[in-house]
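Appendix B. Raw example, untouched.
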Amino acid sequence: MMDKNCFHEEDKLYCYPGTMVLKNKLGIHDENKLEAAEGAIVTLRVAELFKDGIKGRFDFRHLKSIHYYLFHDVYEWAGKERFVDMAKGHIFCPYQNIDEQAKIIFEDLREQNYFLDYDYNKTMNSLIKLFTEINALHPFREGNGRTQREFTEELAKINGICLDLTKIRKDEMIEASFKAINNDYEMLTRLFLENAEEKLEKKEEWQDKYMEEMLYIRCHVKKKSHR
């Protein structure tokens, strides 16, 4: 669950009155019980995504589709941008600027051809930078970390890399992400590299599983390689 220190005042839009418990479809008013129920449900949804995946164009819509799939059993606003400002050791993107900033991030990803032209090291560095940018965007009221993790793992796969961020302890990921937002990528880079394995033999299979418009992408890569 999100730290209570994320807000300077009571979050009346998303929480039950007088509490920091998020309004939820389960009707749970106890924070610990909600955390346990949400965790169990989302773990099941993550397992389903690992098996079936969600195809998309690796844009903001794709990110929101993943969030919706993971959290729609619990929250009415699953897959939708937040309408409150948030902070957790640092201030995340103001909610009024989320769409504008997301457009910049995902257009840049498209311009980089989803890292498909890069070697392993450059791809990993690019994934780490994108992961940090999405973390700074923090577009959802809850579930940002799990959503950006799933999105990044899928993007790694279409590049022939098996990246398993679930192996990283929560406290390590929080610390590494905080440092990265403040331009210190050393810890996050180490964690990514420790939990990544290149599997080029799976690349085409994973592209077909996760990526829309792969015929266009492959042709685009081929044209660029002949320049």
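End of appendix B.
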